[in-house]
Amino acid sequence: MSLRFVFPMRLPACAIALCFVATACLSAPAQSRSEAAHEPVSTLEQKFFSALRNGDSNAILSYVPADGVNVGPDAKHASRDEIERQLQFHHGLYCKLFDSSCLDTPIQLDNVQPACSYRELLTHSEKVHTAASEVTRNGVQQAVLVARIENKQCPNDKLIDFIFNLHADGWKLFSIP
Q: pTM for the whole thing?
């Protein structure tokens, strides 16, 4: 297929080339441009789990979108302000993420072991395996970060998964277990 352009006046070659480049950029699919702009899930995995291991609540907060995030097994929605207060004043989600000593867990008569924060699970376990994958659900690009833990001292879950949605400004948390 051959395209033939007819210009009413003589244009310099660089102006014609610029028209071709602009047309190609405008016709490129928007999805491929946005995919190129976001960081790979492997980088997200490294940065996010590193922030958890280091107890960096500011880094974790940077992943919380303006409209908040779903937290816990019941996916209870919490606003960004609520998450920020919990991280700042060291209660609620802060304890679950970083500090086992302030976790508010129900007393289990058959279990004398206290629950552990995700930070403790990631830093004091016999084995820790992390993985990341990128999926599209209902037209939304998501990253799923998973840590599989082997720890005999902590009774809580040994599989931790964080789900992120791709926003215009990068990966943002959708749910925290």
A: 0.75
